[in-house]
Amino acid sequence: MSENILFDNSNCAAIFDFDGTLLDSLNVWDDIDNESFAKRGVAVPEDFANSTATFTPRQVADYVIEHFGFTDSPEDLMKEWQDMAADAYANRLELRKGAKDYVIYLRKSRAKLVLLTSLSKTLCELSLKHTGLREYFDFIIFGEDLEKTGKNRAQTYIDLANKIGVLPNNCTVFEDSDVALSSAKKAGMKICKIFDCVPAKSLKNNAFDGCCTGFSDFSLAPKNLKE
């Protein structure tokens, strides 16, 4: 990254999701889902991950109770998932390739750095400490801080732009969730699609035509956020 030209990204903001975007973590949630459902004799639906990708932990708990007949309280379910995940986030899960170098680059380029995650504060803080990322972010919004609709609406991103004092068209959102990307795009922000273990490829002729780029390796992320 040090060999690349350092652009002036002042008056711009980079808004990062955490799970599955900066952190290579989606498999751990698949494992937790499979174990939790199997304990109750229920199979995990194929579309479960996509259906709940932008939900807060409480929303996921309410969702499985309503749709799959779990008899646990939301609080007990969240504690079960939290206990299963805590060790992974604190000790095992690592950043996506090139992610830390890219965050450091943007910090040096004077961009505002924002973490907007549906992950709980407890798990996110464990992982930020483990990966050494905490010091680079100007703003962090955890799952508990998001409104009920989470990342499912453009207003979430418009409100965030107002909070950090950056115009929406000067914000670039990095996400692996199509729902969140769609919301950010409707808010007038630039978007970058993060793939899970898939080589970088063009996003032309799909729902996100016109997005900055798509990649799984952050060495391919845009250096100039003003373009």
From TrEMBL:
One Pfam family recorded for the sequence: HAD_2
Domain of life, source organism: Bacteria
Keywords: Hydrolase
Molecular function terms, GO-annotated: phosphatase activity
Keyword Nucleotidyltransferase (UniProt): no
SUPFAM superfamilies: HAD-like
Gene3D superfamilies named among the record's database cross-references: HAD superfamily/HAD-like, Putative phosphatase, domain 2
Annotated NCBIfam families: HAD-SF-IA-v3
Protein name (database record): HAD hydrolase, family IA, variant 3
Higher taxonomy: Bacteria, Bacillati, Actinomycetota, Actinomycetes, Bifidobacteriales
